[in-house]
Structures are given as structure tokens and as C-alpha cells.
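Write out this protein's structure.
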Amino acid sequence: MELIAQSLEGLGIWTLSWGNLVMWAIAFVLMYLAIKKGVEPLLLIPISFGVFAANFPMTGLTNEGGLFYIFYHYGIANELIPPLIFLGLGAMTDFGPVIANPKTLLLGAAAQLGVYAAFFTALILGFSIAEAATIGIIGGADGPTSIYLSANLAPHLMGAVSVAAYSYMALVPIIIPPIARLFTTKKEREMMMTQMRPVSKNERIIFPLLASIIIILLVPTSAPLIAMFMLGNLFMESGVVERLTTVSREALMNIITIILGVGVGSTMSAANFLNQKTLFIFVLGVVAFACATAGGVLIAKLMNIFCKSKVNPLIGAAGVSAVPMAARVVHNMGMQENPQNYLLMHAMGPNVAGVIGTAVAAGAFILAIK
């Protein structure tokens, strides 16, 4: 009887809390959004299952030595996985639009206004400077960078920040259009841009090298992300390492996406997630995203005052680094106003620049705070 009693006491059901049940409900909602609504399924399915499994009591999954602990500690906390994701992203990124029209880099930089708007708002609300920086980076709409920065500055916020970043990336088609319309006129949205010049292969090979020199010398702490991003792009543009390019884009990305998602989800225990800070993070994430979109559009309008070659202000909204979704949304908006208006490649310039800008912003935060 004593042995039976001990066995019954060892059942996890006796230590299951209401917080665990709430986190299960959140996990099921994330699964529903990923499976039924197509909201970033590649990340939200492993994240949601990580949340689900991490909230079983007495499993040891998240304790030192446990499986999820290993995923998180050796893959994310040690800053391995986010740079590897940037390697894959680099192998899929075309810098041609940025090279052909370098001023679009300014639009990607302008979109970082959302990052700093949310950062200062979070400080006012009482978050620590490290927490505020981690929340602000959501405005860049860049999941890997959000994870990288939170691992460095505020690991306890990683789950909420990651889910917010990926959720808002998926909501780009809903968030961008009303803000872009608010700050532009119909005439501006109808504006057609001239065709970009062809970009030579030599330019494409030199760009990742030159960009690495400039960015890493200015912000050394951005090196893990920028170096891997540019290496992946060099794989693709060199044309002589197709196997490495394919592995970076496909097999490697798929493997690390699973580990990343489960590792991030495992940080979302009831104790870490169910608090007032989480609600503020999601609200401030919307503020950051909205300000980033508005900042890109307004800077594009300002550029048109001084530049002879005008740009459609809509492409400034693509400065958030949700590649290539933001560029597609902007292109579709332009087509709705003028069926002959083809903005996709023009919008890819600030879109790609936004990825670089967000990585630089993260590096700057780490340099200033750590």
C-alpha cells in the first residue's frame, strides 16, 4: 500500500496548476492559428508544442540536462541558432534592388524609428533598459533578431517577445495598409517608379563584403548576425557553391527552425509568461510595428522633396524586415491604386535594408547595455 501511495504521489496530475492549463490553452490557440489560419506555421507549430510540453509538471524537460534545456541553453542562450538562421536568410536574399537604388537603405533605417519609439515607451512604463530594448526590437518584425537580442539582454522575456514578433510578422497584410494609407495621398500611391538598372555579378559579390566591413566596424556587436547573413549571400552570389547554398536555404534552416521553435516555446512556462509584463509586450509590439511603418513612409516623402528621382512613398512601409511579405503587401497596394504600378522589386530594397537595420539596432543595444 505504501508503494502504491508513493506511485500515486508521483503522478504529475497532482501538481498540475491553473497556470499550466492556461498555458496549454495559449499553446492550442497558437496551433490553431498556425494550422488553420496559416500564421507563420513553420515557427508557431514548434513554438506552440514547446509551450504545451514545457507546462507538463515533473517532466524535467526544462531542468538542467533536460532535452528542452539543451535546445535552449546550447542553441539559443549560447547565440548559435539565430546567426545560423541569418546564414539561411542570406542565401535567399537578393541585394540587387539595394545595389541598384542605394537610397532605399535610408528607408530601411527609417523603419527602425519604431524600435526606438517602443524602447522609450517601455522605459516610461517601468521596464528595465535591457527589457525595453528587447521589447523595442519587435518593431523590426524580425523573429531571429528578437530572439538573439532577448537571449543577450532579457532571457525571461524571450517567449513573449518571440511570439509577438512572429505574430506581427504574420499580420503584416493587416497592419501595414491602413497606416500606409493614412500617411499617403492617392496620387502618391499611384506613382510609378522608373525601372531599376541591371546589377552586375561583380557588384553582387562585392556588396556583402563591403557591407560587412562598414557595418561590423561601426557596430562590432552586430557581427554574429551580419557576418552570417553576408556569408549566406556570398554563397548564393558566387555561383560556385550550390551545395552550400542549397543546404543553407533548406536542410539547415529546417533543422534549426525545429530546435529554435521548441527551445523558445520551452521558456514560456506559466511562471514566466502569465504576468502583466506579457500584456505590455504585445501592446508595445503593435506600437513599434506601427511606428516603423509610419517612419518608413514619412522618410520616403521627405526624400522626394530633395531627390530628383522620386520614390513611391508606399515602399517606405516595406522597411520593416518581414521579408518578402512586407514588399508583397506594398506591391499589392500600388497595384490596387494603379494596375500598371509594379513596385515589388523597388519595395525589396527597403525590405532587405530593414533586415540589416534591425540587426544593427540589436547590436547597438547590446553594445550600449551589456
